[in-house]
């Protein structure tokens, strides 16, 4: 039974045109995402994975960058549709969270206000309804004492808590796709594991597809069903995670996997 | 345990400003004497209980004139800063946030306006619009727009690339919403600082214009014009100049100290 594709990226090419010589950063990028799938996008810095994600999220300036190809979401090409249609989708059906929780929150606005922002933009809910949803969402991302946290400012929270706030803000409109751009890189290892668990739960409970971008292969292995490996703007290998990790075809992939630090365990 | 040091700037500035504001507010409704009544018998009367600042060459009570004059100066400064801030913020926000051609064009226009000394610019506007209090406010207001817009523009340039702005874009916020709901609140402290400095400059500019005769016209009392009239009598009747002079000094001093004190908080 063929499931309809939620997101289909075809032949995406991204070229920077803000200097004299145009610079291509992503070549022939293809991606298929079904509802409820978790796909990983791995590669080193500069491989083009963030750029591709930003393009899908509609965040790349249409002026400085030339894009070729199609990004089909529910059949609508996000690269060429009207801005207003794109804005309706952003935050509502496609959400994104970033790497740096320390700078991703507005320092002069309270936490509750920031979590509700998508609701304010995309829905007609009144103040009370938004408050209820925000508190509910904060509980789902396991933030302690949500009523108190609601009134606090970002600088009063730790990095792990801020990242949970980001996830709450991104999930509050129940998006069908969540793009997570290195969400755990700036966090310490124990918190990383918790965030990954949280994402798994969101996927299970809400059927949210996740595009998980990371250079941390061990996390990708835990979380993603399929994985794309990027290098220098190209996709060099793709396939089900188990397959790729067990039998990497490309040399680059082999080297990446070999570079995963292994924890030596004594005894157990 | 916080080390609480007394913020002398705030206390002193606050006190001076409060006294001046009290005088100004009272002056709107009541003055000891009608500022325009001329009584020849009082010509150049010295400081006395009846006339705490004495009388001028027409026998008008100086204190009453200072109170009314300070009120005019205050209102003109307020109006000037209001125009400068509102338009400065609008221009600064749009040019800083969007950049591109609109930025280039508007900024060159702003540069041109900025190149003129403010009093000269005000003179040009007055010659086009005529003299009078409203014209002074508009003229000075326009002269003040460039500095506000530059400050706001540089703030917006700084903030538009912040991660949380990208985040707001991702949540689907429109550009206007991002500019005025997400970025502007971050610029408030810098803006407030500029407003306070601007207010002081406006007070001095208004006094300067009135001194030169192109500001508020008689019979409305004005601190600047009183100073101008007092020039001829500077050594014979010093309190004629001291009254308005001190009023100007105290207004500017009080406000400066107050804004310094607030900045520390």
Structure commentary:
The complex is a heterodimer of chains A (268) and B (265). Chain A has 268 residues and is an alpha/beta fold. Chain A is 37% helix and 26% strand. In chain A, the strands form 2 sheets. In chain A, strands 6-7-8-3-9-10 form a 6-stranded mixed sheet, sandwiched between helices. Chain A has a 4-stranded antiparallel sheet with strand order 2-1-4-5, covered by helices on one side. In chain A, helix 3 packs across helix 4, helix 4 (127-140) packs across helix 6 (159-171) and helix 6 (159-171) packs parallel to helix 7. Chain A contains 10 helices and 10 strands. Chain A has helices at 49-57, 83-89, 111-122, 127-140, 146-150, 159-171, 189-206, 217-223, 241-246, 251-258, and strands at 5-16, 23-34, 38-43, 65-73, 76-77, 94-97, 177-181, 209-214, 226-231, 234-240. Chain B has 265 residues and is mostly helical. Chain B has one domain: MetI-like fold (Orthogonal Bundle). Chain B is built from 10 helices and no strands. The model of chain B has no long low-confidence stretch (mean pLDDT 86). Chain A binds chain B through residues 57-59, 63, 87-92, 95-96, 98, 100, 103-109, 117-118, 121-122, 166, 169, and chain B through 100, 162-164, 166-174, 177, 182, 185-186, 188.
Helix/strand layout:
The complex is a heterodimer of chains A (268) and B (265).
Chain A: E1 5-16, E2 23-34, E3 38-43, H1 49-57, E4 65-73, E5 76-77, H2 83-89, E6 94-97, H3 111-122, H4 127-140, H5 146-150, H6 159-171, E7 177-181, H7 189-206, E8 209-214, H8 217-223, E9 226-231, E10 234-240, H9 241-246, H10 251-258
Parallel strand pairs in A: 3-8, 3-9, 6-7, 7-8
Antiparallel strand pairs in A: 1-2, 1-4, 4-5, 9-10
Chain B: H1 8-29, H2 62-98, H3 100-115, H4 118-129, H5 133-159, H6 163-170, H7 175-183, H8 188-212, H9 223-230, H10 238-264
What is the β-strand count of chain A? Answer: 10
- Major sheet summary line of chain A: 6 strands, mixed
CATH superfamily of chain B: MetI-like
Query: Which percent range fits the helix content of chain A?
Result: 25-40%
Greatest interface: A-B, 27 and 18 residues
Compute the number of strand runs of chain B: 0
- For the largest sheet of chain A, list the strands in their spatial order: 6-7-8-3-9-10
Overall shape of chain B: it is elongated
* Tally of individual domains of chain B: 1
Average pLDDT level of chain B:
86
């Amino acid at each position: 039974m063929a499931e309809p594709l939620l997101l289909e990226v075809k032949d995406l090419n991204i070229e920077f045109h803000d200097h004299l010589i145009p610079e291509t950063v992503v070549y022939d990028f293809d991606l298929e995402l079904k509802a409820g799938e978790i796909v990983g996008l791995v590669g080193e810095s500069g491989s083009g994975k963030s750029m591709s994600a930003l393009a899908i999220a509609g965040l790349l300036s249409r002026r400085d960058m030339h894009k070729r190809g199609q990004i089909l979401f529910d059949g609508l090409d996000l690269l060429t549709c009207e801005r207003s249609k794109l804005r309706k989708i952003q935050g509502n059906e496609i959400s994104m969270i970033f790497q740096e929780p320390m700078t991703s929150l507005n320092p002069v606005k309270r936490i509750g206000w920031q979590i509700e922002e998508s609701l304010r933009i995309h829905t007609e809910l009144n103040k009370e309804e938004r408050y209820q949803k925000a508190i509910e969402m904060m509980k789902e991302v396991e933030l302690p004492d949500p009523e108190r946290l609601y009134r606090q400012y970002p600088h009063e929270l730790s990095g792990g808590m801020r990242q949970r706030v980001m996830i709450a803000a991104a999930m509050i409109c129940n998006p069908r796709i969540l793009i997570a751009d290195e969400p755990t890189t700036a966090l310490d290892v124990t918190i990383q594991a918790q965030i990954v668990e949280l994402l798994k739960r969101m996927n299970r409970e809400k059927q949210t597809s996740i595009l998980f971008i990371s250079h941390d292969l061990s996390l990708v292995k835990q979380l993603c069903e399929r994985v794309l490996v990027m290098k220098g703007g190209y996709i060099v290998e793709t396939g089900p995670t188990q397959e790729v990790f067990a039998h990497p075809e490309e040399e680059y992939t082999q080297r990446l996997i070999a570079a995963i630090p292994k924890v030596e365990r004594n005894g157990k | 345990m916080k080390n609480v040091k007394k913020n002398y700037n705030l206390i002193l500035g606050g006190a001076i400003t409060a006294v001046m504001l009290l005088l100004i507010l009272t002056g709107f409704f009541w003055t000891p004497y009608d500022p325009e009544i001329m009584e020849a018998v009082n010509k150049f009367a010295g400081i006395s209980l009846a006339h705490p600042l004495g009388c001028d060459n027409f026998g008008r009570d100086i204190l009453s004139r200072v109170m009314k004059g300070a009120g005019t100066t205050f209102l003109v400064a307020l109006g000037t800063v209001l125009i400068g801030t509102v338009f400065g913020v609008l221009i600064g926000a749009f040019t800083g946030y969007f950049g591109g051609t609109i930025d280039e064009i508007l900024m060159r226009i702003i540069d041109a306006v900025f190149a003129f000394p403010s009093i000269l610019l005000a003179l040009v506007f007055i010659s086009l619009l005529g003299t009078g209090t409203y014209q002074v406010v508009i003229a000075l207001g326009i002269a003040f727009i460039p500095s506000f817009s530059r400050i706001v523009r540089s703030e917006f340039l700084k903030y538009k690339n912040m991660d949380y702005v990208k985040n707001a874009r991702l949540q689907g916020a429109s550009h206007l919403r991002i500019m005025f709901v997400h970025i502007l609140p971050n610029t408030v402290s810098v803006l407030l600082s500029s407003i306070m400095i601007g207010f002081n400059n406006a007070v001095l500019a208004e006094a300067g214009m009135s001194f030169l005769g192109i500001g508020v016209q008689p019979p409305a009392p004005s601190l600047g014009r009183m100073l101008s009239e007092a020039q001829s009598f500077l050594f014979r009747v010093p309190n004629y100049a001291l009254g308005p002079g001190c009023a100007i000094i105290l207004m500017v001093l009080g406000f400066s100290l107050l804004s310094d004190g607030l900045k520390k908080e």
